[in-house]
Amino acid sequence: MAKAKGGAPWLVTFADLMSLLMAVFVLLFAMSSLEIPKYRTIVESLTDALGHGMTLSNDQVAYFNALKANDQTQQDSEKTPIDQLYPLYESLIERFAQDESQSGANTVKIDYDPLKDGILVTFPEQIAFDPGKAKLKPEFVSLLYRFEGFKQPGVFVKVIGHTDCRPVIGGRFESNWELSSARAASVIEALINQGLIDPARAQAIGVADTRPVSDGDSEEALAKNRRVEIWVRSKEAESIPLAQ
Q: Considering the entire predicted model, what is its pTM?
């Protein structure tokens, strides 16, 4: 039986075609996963294999730069409000650390509320105002000046003044509504005058005694309800009501 001499010529073309198809599928997979560095490496390898060297053309470089920019924009848009606010939350924790180490009625509380998507800083009346007054205590002004860094796009600051349920007797204010509103406005004005927040993204609200955090009529319970809250929120969270 005679031995076959050589192989069919079409096998060479077929093998080249299979190699090119495999390269195309690898390229398509890289594009679907959009891992830009790997995608660029594959294109450079194919360019070299086709005899054009490893250097990409100007059009190819522009294309990869555009891909990178779009990828970064998509990553930024996928950030949740907590991703955006967490650096601010950590900054507040650090700046108010010495106050949180205190105990009792003079404690500054800092929390992140996932249901309302915001950072909540609570100042009790004892360190913020004299009874029945809306003028900031000097030590409270010093605390407020630690809000450095919150004048940035997408951050909204809302100050809410709270009182207890006892009626206002004498003095400048005729009701708890006036007192709580004036206290909230005083805090906002201090932050704005110091250039710490953007006036266009600030709001002062007085709610009197409508949102208590402690029940009962003991002095301790009433003192907990007399407070000023500063909410730091993202634009996306502004549609979530703060009412309890």
A: 0.64
